[in-house]
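2024-03-11 09:14:02 DEBUG pipeline.ingest accepted 1 chain
2024-03-11 09:14:02 DEBUG pipeline.ingest length=412
2024-03-11 09:14:03 DEBUG pipeline.predict start
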Amino acid sequence: MTDREQRRTRTREFDLVLFGATGFTGRLVAEYLVKKRPALRWALAGRSLDKLGAVRDELSALEPSAKELPLVAGDSLDRAAMGELARRTRVVCTTAGPYALYGSALLGACAEQGTDYCDLTGETHWVREMIDTHHARAVETGARIVPSCGFDSIPSDLGVLLLHEQLAARGGRLAEAHYRVRRMKGGASGGTIASGLLAAERMKDPAVRRLLADPYSLNPEGAPGVPGQEDWLRPRRDAETGRWLAPFFMAAVNTRVVRRSNALLGYAYGREFRYDESVDVGRGLPGMARAVATSAGMALSGAVVFGPVRKLAQRFLPAPGEGPSREARESGSFEIELLGVGAAGERVRARVGATQDPGYGATSWMLGESALCLAEDALPERGGLLTPASCMGMKLVERLRAAGMTFQAEAG
């Protein structure tokens, strides 16, 4: 624990507050933390004290000591309440989304109070707004504000960091990286769907569309970009492996986070660094057919930008608070391979995966360990709107390995 953490520990009531604990993902993160039994002063927070009490009762069945967990009630739209919450704790971990609707007051309060923060957002337009509004103040107060600490975007961000570390250990430097989804099985919650539908609503604004189309939209102002990094939405065949590739629906979020990490790490991957993400759908005609079908599905999903289609979709999709069953989460899994090329042509490979549903089972591990990393580990005393790789780096990789996730890298 750094001197800064020691000073805050003496003056703050809690080490960690989990906000949004009554939501679907919030309950999963609370369950994860209870099973980990961290030696921390932590609390459950949300809008309704009664619902928080019900969650605490559920957790007590898993771990009797959970009966003593403090409860903190506060409305996410009440700036005074969010300011008071941020003043009481060293770290806030929040699952209360969509963040563009419910997250701004809490993130801003953490930046103002020097309180570390992590969340699950994949809302690039909102993260850009938070960078513009709060990064400078978070630098002043030392608050480490780390969005996107779930499947958006830890496998991408830490996977590329692994490639970098592997090459750096051999005296090389990463020049390009290619993220390939090999296998993914899992369901979606109502909260995630609500965030996606809100993003579609915001895309009616031309300024938002331009921002989302910019491959460097999360980079520091004035940071250089590399031509040809635009997202691709068509099927293609990898000339090197002969395998067919389809667009990955999360690439528009993850790639921006990885590029911001490179900039915040002082261009550790180089100023000409190139990065892309796709889904590996196999070889031959079957692979081509799957690539075409996936690309068509991505194109059709863009129809939710239109109001009538979006309203129709809301009638049939899960509502916030709903999500996959425990059986579905535990039968899910994902495996991602990242291929790196060094500046001198060296090759390195990394694998990231988990034997849990990526969006909820594994995401609760990723967010839970991110919160514990901020609360327990000696991290660089650096504030601002950061990324998992630029803030927690290999310390978080080691935590996630210990939690059961795969993070491996090797030459070749």
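2024-03-11 09:14:41 DEBUG pipeline.report The chain has two domains: 3-150+361-404, 154-354.
2024-03-11 09:14:41 DEBUG pipeline.predict end
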